[in-house]
Amino acid sequence: MDDFRLEWMRNRVYDLLDVGQNDVFEELIKRDDGIYHQMISEYFEGKTENTERPLMFYKLVLEQDEEVEVECGGSTSCFRSVGL
Hints:
Layout: H1 4-17, H2 24-45, E1 65-71, E2 77-83
Antiparallel strand pairs: 1-2
């Protein structure tokens, strides 16, 4: 990253949202032909339509159920749903 402001923001977002993957922010700013990079840059430059508009980041955590086969004695198999 060549913009220290983006590095600073990335580090704050990672710390505050407890993000363990190092490439998530870079993926965000490259997504959709760099529109999010442009939006963040305009925010830093004060070029947004409303200068009092906040810039927000959030983390979405999804639980997945997985069906696991476990032995229940004898030759009978049981299935149990496990939340991941």
